[in-house]
Amino acid sequence: MDLSTTYLGMRLPHPLIVGSGPLADDLDTVRALEDAGAAMLVLRSLYEEEITGEQMEAFFNAESHSESFPEAESYAPEPERAFGPDEYLEHLRLIKEAVRIPVVASLNGATSGGWHSYARMLEQAGADALEIQIYHAASDMTSSAADVERQAIHVVREVKRSVRIPVAVKLAPLLTAFAHFAKTLDSAGADGLVLFTRFHHVDIDVDELEVSHLRTVLRDVESWMNEHEWISLSEMRGNMSLERIPDPAAYERTNFRMALR
Ligand SMILES: Cc1cc2nc3c(=O)[nH]c(=O)nc-3n(C[C@H](O)[C@H](O)[C@H](O)COP(=O)(O)O)c2cc1C
């Protein structure tokens, strides 16, 4: 059986790669993924906001007297940051030392600016390729879909000019004219298209106008358990496990037959 293929000009033993996300945050997990046969690894995205945030931080640290107003920090609590740009570069270097499979860095941004220089730094840190995550929440009413696409194409051109390694573009799942956009990205120099990212949906409580739904879920779980006369999670846990079924073989066979119907 020959499952080998090529992606971004690289020969891979098979097409199973680890997509962009937090799985590559931990070096032991990265090694385990390679041992398990992953053909390639894509790091989580380095966000444009992280890059500009660090630049702004450096600017304000140099230019302002924020230290004389320690309480000012509480006005704008810093969001949790997975990897700042420097940590990201260092992490990439460590991963490159730890594994032999190709490692792809991911940049998330849709505006032009200083971050094309980060593309170069990621290349220098050893990235075998770059994935550009061009997701852009187009909330500006004066900006058209064509404007958003043009901006994305501009970013791709800019990054392609900055690096020699292959550049893939990760696309949103909902595009009005996918074929046209894909062709334009190709013409702009994209070496691959990643289909597709999946958005995480936010639940909004329309009565309370709150984003968090945790309490409701907890309350519903408790009332469901009451209704079904469960008294604890430990009592529920494993209740449908095969081990607790008198004839596991018959159960499996029934499931198999149902699945084939
Ligand atoms: C927890 C989590 C974090 C992710 N982080 C990123 C990210 O940083 N950059 C990115 O381009 N995609 C990210 N993704 C998207 C995945 O790479 C992938 O495109 C998406 O999950 C769709 O694939 P799936 O349908 O197999 O889950 C993330 C997904 C998950 C579940």
Question: Features of this protein?
Answer:
single chain; globular; 8 strands; two-stranded antiparallel ribbon; 9 helices; 261 residues; TIM Barrel; binds flavin mononucleotide; 6-stranded parallel sheet
Describe this structure as you would to a colleague.
The chain is of the alpha/beta class and 261 residues long. It has one domain (5-233): TIM Barrel (Alpha-Beta Barrel). The chain has helices at residues 27-35, 48-63, 85-98, 115-124, 145-162, 178-187, 214-227, 233-236, 248-260; strands at 5-7, 10-12, 18-21, 41-47, 103-108, 129-133, 167-170, 192-194. The strands form two sheets. A six-stranded parallel beta sheet has the order 3-4-5-6-7-8. Strands 1-2 form a two-stranded antiparallel sheet. A hairpin with a 2-residue loop joins strand 1 and strand 2 (10-12). Helix 4 runs parallel beside helix 5. The longest helix is centred in the middle third of the chain and has 18 residues, at 145-162. It is globular. It starts with a strand and ends with a helix. The site of flavin mononucleotide has 11 residues, from strand 3 and strand 4. Residues 19-22, 44-45, 106, 133, 170, 197-198 line the site of flavin mononucleotide.
